[in-house]
Amino acid sequence: MGLGSGQDAGDKAVMKAETASQKYAWMMTLMIATGDDPEADATVDERTADKPKSNKPKTVLEALKDKYRVSDTDFAKLLEKYGDDHEKIKQALDYIQKQKKGTN
Q1: What is the DSSP string of 25-75?
Q2: Is the dihedral of CA 44, 45, 46, 47 positive or negative?
Q3: pTM for this model (two decimals)
Q4: pLDDT band at 103 (very low <50, low <70, confident <90, very high)
Q5: Which residue of 24, 36, 38, 48 sits 20 to 30 Å from the alpha carbon of 58, by its own alpha carbon?
């Protein structure tokens, strides 16, 4: 194929070099991104990248909201009615869920 050398002193050096050159040729031919863009602007990338989600554990109330798939508006109404009493909120959510299953 072509000339090159691998960093392996063994009998695989030529094959490694050939494989690497083929991979490079295909990447360039097919324009496959490697993530090492020399024209990249780190500040723009940081601003536009999705922010990783916090590893902060959820509160009991957040977990209930997610588990029962309650809208923000409905959950706000439950919080207004029951405050931070997660047991009463859970009971209300169980009741609502049973009512929905009964109507379907």
Answers
A1: HHHHHHT---S--TT--HHHHHHHSPPPPP-PPPPHHHHHHHHHT--HHHH
A2: positive
A3: 0.44
A4: low
A5: 48
**By three-state DSSP, how is residue 4 classified?**
coil
Alpha-carbon distance of 93 to 63, in angstroms, equals 12
Collect all residues with Cβ–Cβ distance below 8 Å to 8 and sequence separation of at least 6: 16
89 neighbors 82 (Cβ within 8 angstroms)? yes
Classified as helix, coil or strand, 8 is coil
28's tokens: 């360039």
The stretch 73-86 carries a mean pLDDT of 89
Residue type, 54: S
Q: 58 near 66, Cβ under 8 Å?
A: yes
